[in-house]
Each structure stands twice: as structure tokens, then as C-alpha cells.
Amino acid sequence: MLLSSLAPAAFAEPSEGGSCSAASRWVVCKADDDTSASGTRPRPAGTGKGKPVKPVCTTKKLETQPPEGSFLWEGKSAKDGAAVYQRTCRNGPNGTPVYSSFAADGGAPAIDPEVVAQQAVSRMKLSGPEIASPRASGRYVVGMPTWMWVEKGPSTFGPNSTSATAGGVTVTATAEVTQIVWSMGDGAQVTCTGPGTAYTAAYGQQESPTCGHTYTRTSASQDGGKFTVTATATWSVDWRVNGGGETGQFTEVRQSQEQVAIGELQVVR
After folding, report:
1. What angle do CA 235, 116, 23 make, to 5 degrees?
2. From the CB of residue 78, how many other CB atoms can be counted at a distance below 10 Å?
3. How far is CA 237 from CA 60, 120, 180, 255, in A?
4. Within a 13 Å sphere around the CA of 195, how many CA atoms are in the beta-carbon half?
5. pLDDT digit string (tens) for 167-217?
């Protein structure tokens, strides 16, 4: 993990009252996969976009710094203005403290754990839904139920979990699709809270029990004679600071499209 070069204002001594405390700016962190993110708005410690949580950790510079060459320096040196900090989290059995240490250049950077969580999400390579139905090669007609469903995979539906580290703070993020909004191309929208039910011949002409739509007109007047079906997935991301207790939640949105022809039922006499 690398920290990018910043003006001195981007660094702040950690608050004695809580870890990940707000600062006028948060440090810009560069993750191992060369993705970066930053924050510029102040807010209380432990507050994410989803839900506020009470911080249970404190961060404090060691009054007696380790001797030069100690592994606690992580290759840094007091001669260069670095210092070693201790992070205390009361998340052991019955609230007992758990200790960890880290070294930081020029004072401990004020790290926003949600920014680190976003770095973790960038590694997941989340994409839009993998649409199984309706599909371009399918045959669909007016008045007959159309079943919508998607294939489940780590990057297309979840769950997907990974971690990222910045400034001694490691955050694990878990992402999963919580709903898919289907824009059917005829003006209708259908909201489904799961992947949908895969159709089999045993269902006959029944409507989908979880995610379906019935077209009332053909796609003949559309460009290429097909409706553009758009599936917009909302990914819910829950994150937690490893060993720290802070948690939060935010959402990501991804889309996929399919061109679908809707015809009329032909009656043979």
C-alpha cells in the first residue's frame, strides 16, 4: 500500500477521542491495485453514507517511541519525521481491548474507512447483471408472460468480498445485489428483489412467481424491430474495519442491456 504525495494540510494527528476522526481533508490513499479515492467533506467519526455507527477504537502516538531498527517502524525512521502509533479497539471478548501498531510519515494520516472500502470494491470488478432472459435469440409474443432472470456470479450478482489497506487501516467490504430494476423498452419498469426464477417447460404459460412482464404491443415500430431491455442492479456494500469495530454501508449501480424482439401470435387456420 502506498500513500500519495500530499500537502501538509492533508495530514492530521489522530484524535485522542476516537479513531478515523474527521479532519478538514482526508488523506488520498493509493491501494495495491493502483486505484485511488479521496474525501473532502468533514463528518463525525464512524459515519458512513448508509448508517452512523459509534466508534469503539482510539489511536494514540506512543509516548516512548521504539528504538531505531525496530520492526514497529515498518522501514520508516524518526529522523524523517515518522512516528509509531498504537490503535486500541475494544472489540475483544466482553469488550476487552485489542492492540495494534503502525508507523506513519509526518503524523498519522486521517483515514476515512469508507474511502478504503471503495478501494476494496474497485478490486471486485463489479458489472451489470448477466441477463439470461429475455435474450436476443428468444421468441416472445404479445400477451404471453415474459420471465426475467439473471445468472448469479461474484462480479454480476454477488456476494463478493475483499479487503483493502491504507494508513494502517484495513477494511473488508462485501457487496451483493439487492434489487434489479428492469426497463422493458415499452415504457414499463419492473423491480425485482432477487435474481428471478429460471423458466422451464413445466411452468407452461404461467407468469413468473418472482420477476416477469407481459408485453401488450409488438416491437415492430422500434429501431431494428426490437425493444431495448435494460437491467439496472443496485449493489449494497457493507464494510467493516478489521479489528476496529467501525462499520458502514453504501450502494453501487451497474447496468446491462439486451435487444429483444416481441412479435404477435400467429393463428394458423
Report:
1. 120
2. 14
3. 30, 10, 15, 17
4. 17
5. 778 999 999 999 999 999 999 999 999 999 999 999 999 999 999 999 999
